[in-house]
Specification:
The complex is a heterodimer of chains A (about 425) and B (about 350). Chain A is mostly helical and about 425 residues long. Chain A has a domain of about 250 residues: MetI-like fold (Orthogonal Bundle), CATH 1.10.3720. Chain A contains 13 helices and seven strands. In chain A, a hairpin with a 2-residue loop joins strand 5 and strand 6. Chain B has two domains: about 230 residues, D-Maltodextrin-Binding Protein, domain 2 (3-Layer(aba) Sandwich); about 100 residues, D-Maltodextrin-Binding Protein, domain 2 (3-Layer(aba) Sandwich), CATH 3.40.190.10. Chain B contains 14 helices and twelve strands. In chain B, helix 6 links the parallel strand 8 and strand 9. The chains are: A mainly alpha (about 425), B alpha/beta (about 350).
C-alpha cells in the first residue's frame, strides 16, 4: 500500500492512460491480474472435471439422478431408532443410518469428555500411582489406531461373553447381573427400558415420529435447567448484596427432578426387564455389540486425547493464579472450579472441537463391526444395491460436511461465551 | 473449500470411469497378465493354498481364460474383492473379469451395466445352524440372529423370506466370509445364511463340520456367473466362450488328458471346431485358433474342475445336482459351436 504512489500526495499529475501492459507491470493491477488468472485456471480445472465426469457417465450409459432414494431399499437394519422396514425407501434407510451415526457420536463424545477430564486432572495429581496410571492410559490408547481398539472391543464382546443359551436351564452357566435386570451376552447388552403405562402417542415432525412423552421429558429437563440458573443467579445477587449465600441445593433438586418425577408418576412409568425368549433376550433395550464396540473404541481412544488437552489447559494457567486464590482463602476445590477451570476452558475448547469432529467422522468406521451408520447404509448397502456410487458418495460427503460444520458452529458459539472478553 | 472438495470427489470417480472403454484384450495382452476379481477367500471356490497360490473352482475359470489369451494359466493376478467392492473394482477397470460367487440378476445386468457371460454354478440361498439348537427347518427361525454378508443378493432374499413368512430376525451385517465364520462359531449369531455352496465350503473348514447342519429350505435362485463390463463385445465373447468351451468339453468328452491328442483332428466336426483343427473360431475372438485347447489343458473341462475343487471327493463334498450336464439331468448346457 505504502509503495503505491498517490498522485495527489506528490503533487504530480501523471494521469497516464490505462494500457494493457499496466496489468502486468503496474503494482496496482498486478495482484488482481494474478488472482483473476488463477481463478480462471481453477474454474477451468473444475469445468474439465465435471465435463469428464459427465462424458464418462454418458459413455457408460449412466445418468446422474437421486431417484434411487425413493426406491424400496429391500434390506433390513438391526438398530432402528425410527420406524423402518425393508419395504421403505433407500432415503429412509439413509435417515436411519444418519440417526445411528448421531446416536453413536453423542454417546462417544460424552464418554470421551468424561474420561478425558477425569484422566487429564488426575494426571496432574500429586499421588504418584494415580498420576502414572493416567499416563499409561493416555499413552496406550492414543498410540494405537482407533480401528484396532474398535475391533478389540468387538472381539471381546463376541468371543468372551456368554451366548443367550447359556442363561437357559436349571443350572445356567451364566446369569443376569444387577438383580436379574441386565444381561451381558455375546449379542450385546440387554438393559431394562423405561415404559409408560399411559402412552401419549407420537407426533409427526417431518419424516420422524418422536414420542410425545419423551419430548415432554426433554422440555421439562430444559425448563428445569433454565429455572435452576435463575435460582443460582438470584443466590449470587443475594450474596453480592448481603455477603451471605442462601442455600440453593434443595431448590435445585426440586426444580431439576421434581417435574420429571411427577410426570413419571402420573404416566405410570415402570421398567421393562429383558427376558430370555426363543433364540434371544426380548424386551428391554438392546445395546448391540457393534454399538458397544464403537462406543468404547471411539470414546476411550479420543478420551486419551482430551485428557492431554485438559492437562495442557490447566498447565497453561500460571501458578500465580492458584497462589492468589489460596491467599484469598479459597479452598483447593473452589480454586479449581472458580479460578483455574474458567480460564483453562479458553485453552481447552478449540482443540476439543476438533476432537468432537474427529469422533463424528470416525463413526464411519462402523462398517468394521457392522454398525449400521450412515456409511454402512447409504454409503454401503444402498450404493452396492443400486450402483449409484457417485450420487451416494457425494450425498454422504455433503451430510458429513453438514454435521461437522454444525458441530463446529455450535462449539464456536460456546467458545465465544467463555473466551477472554477483551475490551 | 466446499467447491474444491466437490471437484476432488468428482475427479476420483471420473478417473475410474475413464478406463472402462479401453480394449480389454489389448490391455491384457500388453500387461501380460489377467486381473481377475475373486472372493476374499472361500475354500473350494477361491482361496490361496499353503504356498500362496490361488486355488478353486472360480480360480480355475480365470486360469482357463488366461491360458486361452496368454498361453500361461499362471499369468493371473487375483484381486480379492468383498461383496461391497466387487462391482466398483470391475467398473473401474481394476479387474478384467469377476469370477466370484456373484448372482446374475436383472438390475445388475441392466442397471449396473455389467454383462453376465454365463452361469458358472447354479446355486440357491440356504441356512446353516448349529445342531445343538435343534432347528430342522427355516420356518422355526423366528426371532433368530442371522449373520449376513452385506451388499449381496442374500441380504435382500433374507429380508423378503422373513417378511413373507411373518417372522422376525436380527441381522448381523458382516463384510467377508471369514468374518462371518468367526462370528457364527463364536455364537454371535444363531444362523449363517449365504449360497448353499458357500455354506458347504465354509462348513468344510470347521473343526467339527458334523456339528453344523444346512437346513433343507433353499429360498432363492442364485445363478453365479462370470461378469465383465458392458461395452466390449470382443472381451465379452472371450469370457463367455471360454466358459462354454469348458462346459462343451465335458459334454463331448474332451479332458485335460486327451485334449492334445484330440486337437490333432477327430471324426467329430464340433470337437474339431472347438479345438481349432477346423474353422477359425479362435481368430474370430482375436485369439489363435487353439485357444480352447489351452483353456481346457489349464485345469481340465468343467466336470474336472468341479470334481477337483468342490465335488464329492473333496472335503466340501457338493454333488453335481443342477450343475450336471443337461444330458445328465442338470442345467449345464453350452450353445453349439457352429
Amino acid at each position: 500500500m505504502s509503495t503505491a504512489t498517490d498522485p495527489r500526495a506528490t503533487g504530480e499529475a501523471p494521469k497516464k492512460a490505462f494500457t494493457f501492459s499496466m496489468l502486468l507491470y503496474d503494482q496496482r493491477y498486478r495482484s488482481i491480474t494474478i488472482q483473476v488468472f488463477f481463478l480462471f485456471l481453477l474454474m477451468l480445472g473444475a469445468a474439465w472435471l465435471i465435463d469428464n465426469t459427465v462424458n464418462n457417465l454418458r459413455a457408460l450409459g449412466r445418468t446422474f439422478s437421486f431417484a434411487f432414494l425413493n426406491a424400496p431399499a429391500g434390506y433390513d437394519i438391526n438398530q432402528r431408532p425410527i420406524e423402518y422396514n425393508s419395504q421403505m425407501t433407500h432415503g429412509r434407510a439413509a435417515l436411519v443410518g444418519f440417526i445411528n451415526t448421531m446416536i453413536l457420536a453423542v454417546m462417544a463424545c460424552a464418554l470421551a469428555t468424561v474420561l478425558g477430564v477425569i484422566a487429564g486432572v488426575l494426571r496432574l495429581s500429586n499421588n504418584w500411582i494415580v498420576g502414572r496410571l493416567m499416563t499409561v492410559y493416555v499413552e496406550v490408547f492414543r498410540n494405537i489406531p482407533t480401528l484396532l481398539w474398535i475391533l478389540i472391543f468387538g472381539a471381546i464382546m463376541t468371543e468372551a461373553m456368554p451366548a443367550p443359551s447359556a442363561f437357559r436351564g436349571d443350572e445356567p452357566s451364566a446369569s443376569m447381573i444387577f438383580n436379574d435386570s441386565v444381561a451381558i451376552t455375546n449379542r450385546g447388552v440387554f438393559v431394562p427400558a423405561i415404559m409408560f403405562a399411559q402412552d401419549l402417542g407420537t407426533i409427526r415432525v417431518g419424516p420422524v415420529n418422536p414420542s410425545i412423552v419423551w419430548l415432554l421429558i426433554i422440555a421439562l429437563i430444559a425448563a428445569g435447567i433454565y429455572v435452576n440458573k435463575l435460582v443460582i443467579d438470584h443466590a449470587t445477587r443475594v450474596q453480592n448484596a448481603t455477603g451471605v449465600r442462601p442455600k440453593t441445593w434443595w431448590k435445585s433438586i426440586l426444580v431439576l427432578l421434581g417435574p420429571v418425577t411427577l410426570l413419571f408418576i402420573v404416566l405410570g412409568a415402570h421398567l421393562e426387564y429383558p427376558e430370555l425368549r426363543g433364540f434371544n433376550f426380548a424386551g428391554g433395550t438392546h445395546l448391540r455389540n457393534s454399538l458397544i464396540a464403537m462406543w468404547l473404541g471411539l470414546g476411550i481412544y479420543t478420551g486419551a486425547f482430551i485428557a492431554e488437552i485438559v492437562r495442557a489447559g490447566i498447565l497453561a494457567i500460571s501458578k500465580g493464579q492458584t497462589e492468589a486464590a489460596f491467599a484469598l482463602g479459597l479452598q483447593p476445590g473452589k480454586t479449581m472450579r472458580l479460578v483455574i477451570l474458567p480460564q483453562a476452558l479458553r485453552v481447552i475448547i478449540p482443540p476439543l472441537i476438533s476432537n468432537y469432529l474427529n469422533i463424528t467422522k470416525n463413526t464411519s468406521l462402523g462398517l468394521a463391526v457392522g454398525y449400521m451408520d450412515l456409511r454402512s447404509t447409504l454409503g454401503g448397502i444402498t450404493i452396492n444395491q443400486t450402483g449409484r456410487e457417485l450420487e451416494g458418495m457425494l450425498l454422504m460427503m455433503l451430510i458429513y460436511l453438514a454435521i461437522s460444520l454444525t458441530i463446529s458452529g455450535l462449539m464456536n458459539v460456546y467458545n465465544n461465551r467463555v473466551k477472554l472478553k477483551e475490551r | 473449500m466446499k467447491k474444491s472438495l466437490f471437484a476432488g470427489a468428482i475427479a476420483v470417480t471420473s478417473l475410474g470411469a475413464g478406463v472402462a472403454h479401453a480394449q480389454t484384450l489389448d490391455t491384457v495382452m500388453d500387461r501380460g497378465e489377467l486381473n481377475c476379481g475373486v472372493s476374499t477367500g472361500l475354500a473350494g471356490f477361491s482361496a490361496p493354498d499353503a504356498n500362496g497360490v490361488w486355488q478353486g473352482f472360480d480360480v480355475a475359470k480365470c486360469r482357463a481364460i488366461a491360458a486361452a489369451i496368454l498361453d500361461d494359466p499362471m499369468a493371473v493376478n487375483f484381486v480379492p474383492t468383498t461383496g461391497q467392492t466387487r462391482f466398483s473394482a470391475l467398473a473401474s477397470g481394476e479387474v478384467d473379469v469377476l469370477a466370484r460367487n456373484t448372482t446374475w440378476t436383472f438390475t445388475r445386468d441392466i442397471d449396473l451395466n455389467l454383462t453376465f457371460v454365463g452361469t458358472n454354478y447354479y446355486d440357491g440361498q440356504g441356512f446353516m445352524v448349529n445342531r445343538e439348537i435343534g432347528v430342522s427347518s427355516a420356518m422355526e427361525l423366528d426371532g433368530a440372529t442371522v449373520c449376513i454378508q452385506t451388499g449381496t443378493t442374500t441380504e435382500l432374499n433374507l429380508a423378503d423370506y422373513f417378511r413373507a413368512n411373518g417372522m422376525e430376525y436380527e441381522p448381523v451385517p458382516i463384510e467377508t466370509n471369514a468374518e462371518a465364520q468367526q462370528q457364527y462359531l463364536a455364537g454371535a449369531c444363531d444362523v449363517y445364511t449365504t449360497d448353499v455352496s458357500g455354506l458347504a465350503a465354509t462348513r468344510a473348514s470347521f473343526e467339527n463340520p458334523d456339528n453344523h447342519v444346512i437346513l433343507p429350505e433353499v429360498i432363492s435362485k442364485e445363478p453365479l456367473g462370470l461378469v465383465v463390463r458392458d461395452g466390449d463385445k470382443q472381451w465379452e465373447g472371450i469370457a463367455r466362450w471360454t466358459l462354454m468351451a469348458l462346459i462343451a468339453a465335458e459334454e463331448l468328452g474332451i479332458t485335460s488328458a486327451n485334449v492334445a491328442e484330440l486337437a490333432q483332428g477327430t471324426d467329430s466336426p464340433e470337437i474339431n471346431r472347438i479345438l481349432g483343427s477346423e474353422g477359425d473360431f479362435g481368430e474370430m475372438l482375436g485369439l489363435s485358433n487353439d485357444w480352447a485347447v489351452r483353456a481346457i489343458a489349464a485345469a481340465g473341462n468343467y466336470g474336472e474342475i468341479f470334481a477337483a475343487n468342490i465335488g464329492d471327493q473333496t472335503p466340501i463334498g457338493l454333488s453335481r445336482g443342477l450343475n450336471a450336464q443337461w444330458t445328465q439331468g442338470g442345467l449345464m448346457y453350452a450353445p453349439p459351436f457352429r
